[in-house]
Specification:
The complex is a heterodimer.
Chain A (H helix, E strand, L loop, with lengths): L1 H6 L5 H38 L4 H4 L3 E2 L4 E2 L2 H32 L2 H16 L2 H19 L6 H25 L3 H9 L4 H12 L1 H17 L2 H6 L17 H8 L5 H30 L5
Antiparallel strand pairs in A: 1-2
Helix pairs in contact in A: 2-13, 4-7, 4-10, 5-7, 6-7, 7-10, 8-9, 10-13, 12-13
Chain B lengths: L1 H19 L4 E12 L2 E12 L3 E5 L6 H8 L9 E9 L2 E2 L7 H7 E4 L10 H11 L5 H14 L3 H4 L12 H13 L5 E5 L7 H14 L4 E5 L3 H7 L2 E8 L2 E9 H6 L4 H9 L2
Parallel strand pairs in B: 3-8, 3-9, 6-7, 7-8
Antiparallel strand pairs in B: 1-2, 1-4, 4-5, 9-10
Helix pairs in contact in B: 4-7, 5-7
Classes of the chains: A mainly alpha, B alpha/beta.
Bound molecules: adenosine-5'-triphosphate (ATP) and magnesium ion.
Chain lengths: ~290, ~280
């Protein structure tokens, strides 16, 4: 805005049209966001009126038609899925991005980039299907029933890995060449340069990529629903089935009524809050210029 | 044609003196050629660089000065298409032999670039990183060295209170001095400088020049500069490069007095007088 004011001495029509167009589009997306939030909030309000909040955490079980609203296992399950998949996908993404930029011959790195881009575009239901017919039987060989937290974590990790890789890869490519020159000139070898200079210099990009991946992981519904078994319980081990908040909504929305329906909106609100907190936290951390 | 013949004469004359007294020299460079892909950029440069003095490399833009400097600490390795032939001897060691300990070579030969290239970390971390990498682990030793080197480059008072703030928040001149500190902290024997003052204001330039004068007793300094006045002020020896049919060649080299006052070659004469 200041740019257009200072750098052009007269207002151009194209400029102001573009400006209003941008304001309109930006404003519209904010309004839609707000409307959705308000809608979810009002839908869940009747649940909050009748059910004490602690019942979501301390009820006996999840049986909304019988007035039991133990939502904690699904919340924990969703968080576990997110944490697990991030823990696998981020290191993998860093490795692949580093390989592409510093070790792979040109042909291979180009091929690898294309492949990762394709992977990023595959719909989640396909990943779910793959998980169901390939991954779950493999897990059964270790421990039944196969559909489990572990299956969910692995499928999610594979799903979010391409996105994170693309982000980190482009961050590495946009890293000024003089960091590497400086590092080599003081005697660091390639590997030490990567460990001591490149990755620390990229920590914010890696962090931002992880948060985006995490947001996608916690919001994923279909793939998780297909491979996790959907038993509402706090899993004792990664081999036990569990149900995510998202799957819960998808599974029950079709027949949910009144309080039940409202409590599903509570879980939607919960998801929204988690994503909001993550994005807000990310902004805070990335904005901190003095953080070195 | 005539120009080139003369150049060879000058180089040959010089090559003879090499064998007389090689311990005086930090670098003995013999028939160095550098190509990027199929383009020959530097052709057949033979040059000896004396110890504990300032050698300036001057010449027009694009004649391969930066590339030449990068040959001395094998920074040319960074570019895969870059191929170097000939010999660059530091002491008895050929930098380009496959058995050379590159980490050690690069500790011994520090480099200061045209633009300050600090890492996007804190001031402290920028100095600690090279030390740690070269095996200095003792916290107290690291602290002392950092303080010492910052004092040497005249930055200590300015940054003492903000050692843990981002190095990139310093001014350009301060950044360049911190770069110098980062090089000095490894106690090198040689410092290569590629137009270290070209991005700096006159005051910062003066500071860097003063530092160079202070350092030259203990270090061998090879500096590329476009500023002939600066070369006159600081150098003991000068090597003049020229772009001959797209290839960088060494036209003439010798003591600063010889090159600036009694240049043998008319190209040199024209070049050194163009800036005066
Ligand atoms: N990475 C590279 N790949 C291919 N050619 C290069 C590369 N770097 C430099 N060159 C070429 O090598 C020649 C010499 O470049 P160099 O940077 O060494 O010149 P210079 O003398 O330092 O010039 P200046 O005074 O402008 O810095 C130029 O013609 C340039 O185009
Ligand atoms: Mg240059």
């Amino acid at each position: 805005m200041t740019l257009s004011k200072n750098s052009t001495s007269y207002p151009s029509i194209a400029d102001s049209v573009l400006k209003w167009l941008l304001v309109a589009v930006g404003g519209l997306s904010i309004v839609i966001m707000m409307l959705i939030t308000v809608f979810i909030f009002t839908e869940s309000i009747s649940a909050f009126k009748i059910i004490d909040i602690e019942r979501f955490f301390f009820d006996e079980r999840w049986n909304p038609t019988a007035g039991e609203f133990y939502m904690l296992p699904m919340l924990v399950g969703s968080l576990l899925l997110m944490a697990g998949s991030i823990a696998i996908a981020v290191p993998l993404a860093v490795l692949v991005a580093v390989f592409n930029n510093f070790y792979a011959p040109k042909v291979l790195s180009v091929a690898c980039r294309r492949l990762v881009e394709i992977l990023a575009g595959i719909p989640s239901v396909v990943y779910g299907l793959w998980g169901l017919v390939t991954l779950v039987p493999m897990i059964i060989m270790i421990q039944s029933p196969g559909t489990s937290l572990l299956a969910g974590i692995i499928v999610l990790a594979i799903m979010i890995f391409p996105t994170i890789t693309i982000l980190i890869d482009s961050a590495i490519r946009s890293l000024p060449k003089h960091y590497i020159e400086a590092s080599v000139a003081i005697g660091l070898k390639r590997w030490s340069t990567i460990i001591s200079v490149v990755l620390p210099a990229l920590r914010k990009s890696i962090f931002a990529g992880s948060i985006l991946g995490a947001a996608r992981a916690i919001g994923e519904t279909m793939a998780v629903l297909m491979v996790c078994g959907n038993v509402v319980q706090l899993p004792d081990s990664v081999f036990e089935p569990m149900r995510a908040l998202t799957s819960n909504i998808a599974l029950e929305m079709a027949y949910a009524m009144e309080l039940h329906r409202s409590s599903l909106f509570v879980s939607a609100l919960l998801l929204l809050c988690i994503v909001f907190v993550m994005m807000f936290g990310k902004e805070m951390i990335l904005r901190d210029k003095n953080h070195v | 044609m005539e120009l080139l013949d003369r150049r060879e004469n000058v180089c040959e004359m010089h090559a003879e003196s090499v064998f007389n007294d090689s311990s005086r020299f930090m670098f003995c460079i013999d028939k160095l050629c550098l190509c990027y892909g199929n383009n020959m950029i530097i052709e057949n440069v033979s040059l000896n660089i004396p110890k504990n003095s300032v050698t300036s490399i001057i010449g027009p833009s694009g004649c391969g000065k930066t590339s030449f400097l990068c040959c001395l600490n094998r920074l040319t390795d960074l570019n895969e298409s870059c191929c170097v032939t000939g010999e660059v001897k530091v002491g008895d060691e050929n930098v380009y032999s496959s058995s050379v300990n590159l980490t050690e070579v690069r500790r011994k030969i520090g480099m200061l670039f045209q633009k300050p290239n600090l890492f996007p970390f804190s001031i402290w971390r920028n100095l600690e990183l090279p030390l740690k990498h070269h095996g200095v682990r003792d916290k107290e030793v690291i602290r002392l060295k950092i303080q010492n080197v910052l004092q040497n480059v005249g930055l200590w008072e300015e940054v003492e209170s903000r050692l843990h703030t981002p190095a990139l928040s310093l001014s350009g001149g301060q950044q360049q001095r911190l770069c110098l500190a980062r090089t000095l902290i490894l106690e090198p024997e040689v410092i290569l400088m590629d137009e270290p003052c070209s991005a700096l204001d006159p005051m910062s330039t003066k500071k860097i020049e003063e530092l160079i004068m202070e350092l030259k007793g203990n270090y061998t300094i090879v500096i590329v500069t476009h500023n002939i006045a600066q070369a006159k002020r600081i150098s003991d020896h000068v090597a003049f490069f020229w772009n001959h049919e797209g290839k960088g060649v060494l036209v003439e080299q010798g003591t600063a007095d010889k090159i600036f006052n009694y240049p043998k070659h008319e190209l040199t004469a024209a070049y050194v007088n163009s800036g005066a």
